[in-house]
Amino acid sequence: MAEDGTTDGTETSGSEPTDGSGSGRSEGEVSSRHLVTDRRVALSVTFVVAFCSIAYELVYSELLTVFFGGTVLRYSITIGLYMFSLGVGSVLSAQLGEPESNFLRTEVYLAIAGPAGAMAIVAINSLPPIDVPGAGPTILALSHVPILVVGVLSGFEVPLLTDLVENREETVFASLGRLYPRRIVRAILGAFFTIDDPDNRSFSEVLGVDYLGSLAGTVVYALVLYPRYGLVVSVFALGLLNALAALGFAAWTFSNAARTLSRPTVGQWRAVVLVGVLLTGTYGGLVAHPNAVDRAVTTTYLERTIEREYPPGVADVETRSYDTTSYQTVLTYERDVQGHTDTETCLHLDRAIQFCDRWVDSYHSGLVDIPMTTFDDQSSVDVLLVGGGDYIAVDHLRQYDASVDQVDIDGEFLEMAREREFFRQYNDDAYEYDRLNTTTQDAFTYLQESDETYDLVLLDVPGVRSDETMSLYSTEFYTLLREHLSDDGLVVSWVYTSGDHPTHSKVYANTVRAAGFDQYLPYYAYDDLDGDGGLEPGERFYVLSDGPTPTPDLERAESDYVHANAETFGEWRWRSLPEYRGVEPNSVLHPNYDIIVD
């Protein structure tokens, strides 16, 4: 039996010719003397196919999450559709002949379809809004088509490869027979299954290589490709790998070293190989300039997305800077809007605007200065600032000589805010404040590990637009905040308005109430948002309490904005947090996805 890769045949002369149909010495006879063989080349390409295919699906999942929200939902649907389409491809592969030729074609088609699918998802979701019945579901359905295309092509792989590698030989999986205690493993398996000696079929080994490639694809994508290159460049890197694998397979098949793989005429493969060469050159050039490619594609998409928030032709957006960190994209841009007297400079993080220079002061005055006026001795106030990586809130707190513990998960963004003039013009080097202690950590983890108590907690955090931020809007998180409050402590956050997001507001109210808060003080920060000289309500804020209900005294504010607009705040009135029937709070263990704002 040849389960360990040995043969009982005698090796023929090295000068014996071989034809394209696989005559001459058998693969098994030369496997022990040749490091590179037909079977090993084919299995290596299989590893690459599986590696790239699963990574393509991860790219698609992330893109769909960006456009449609709901990380768990998008990844679950992507995995389900991918597995389904793998089965469809496997069934359809029974109709295919010439495994060498079709295997090469599959590699080239994947090199085209993978990156093209990602660009198609971006393009479909960058179209101008279409006010036609059924447009939304149609765009959603079309955005999932690339998942099926890559899945079907990947489903061809295992059946085709099984036809290519019929006989066992010394591959990595066959060699494992010497690396693990076979008797022990067989004894364990024998306790639960009926066992027999391995046969000479290659299917299990091919499938093993395929699964190994999928594992490598998920790990390398998560730990290397996405953190280092982002979505756009990663998908081109995967396309390059697919194209290189196709060319390597073609080169080996046409070489004199190939023995069992058939060798069709050059004319049959000429077009496919030419496409592979063009793809390799194109993708290689793109991957060689990752920053330029990522900036060009992403900023163009973001500019069009921001312009789509207005009627056609009303807004013109031009990027000033674009960066990616391990946690978010950071875009600064200039916005010209018809009817506004001046051009605005704005900051955009991931999918949401953070501030524009027209209202940056009113937002931070509402978040910081109003609640600080509820304290008699402001210099004795201990503040926990969650987020606020631009240091602008810290600058406002510095005016009161308050003690500040800041927790922000994105150290790269913090460094950016310390170094770049765009941020420094607003924060006035507040990172140098001597009563500031900044911790780069997830706020949830920080609260679980900390024993500190605070008089004031300020939540300068991103909106809940995906699963990644849902924990910051959970009952568990607000419970932790309440547990870290002093006896007279308060929590302050900007909130989505109930008029624009009624479902979110109901879930949020029940979530906060379930955490133990029963009173809230609502108010708006007014500003001239459209540049017409009149004031409009801007950000909405809640001061949350589980006991004390202090009244702000605006005379204590260290803010020109507050003094100039004191009359806009009206009468201060604490209210009981409403409780909505039939609405579940959002919990880490029992998430309510209605809290996500699209």
From TrEMBL:
Active site annotation, chain numbering: 460 (proton acceptor)
PROSITE patterns reported for this sequence: PABS_2
Keywords: Membrane, Polyamine biosynthesis, Transferase, Transmembrane, Transmembrane helix
Domain PABS: 294-546
Region (Disordered): 1-31
Keyword Membrane carried by entry: yes
GO annotation, biological process: polyamine biosynthetic process
Gene3D superfamilies: Vaccinia Virus protein VP39
Transmembrane segments: 41-60, 72-96, 108-127, 139-161, 206-226, 232-254, 266-286
Stored InterPro entries: PABS, SAM-dependent_MTases_sf
Compositionally biased tracts (Low complexity): 7-16
MF term (GO), any: transferase activity
Family to which the UniProt record says this protein belongs: Belongs to the spermidine/spermine synthase family.
PANTHER family cross-referenced by the UniProt entry: THERMOSPERMINE SYNTHASE ACAULIS5
Protein name (Swiss-Prot/TrEMBL): Spermidine synthase
Naturally occurring in which organism (per UniProt): Natrinema longum
Biological classification of the source: Archaea, Methanobacteriati, Methanobacteriota, Stenosarchaea group, Halobacteria
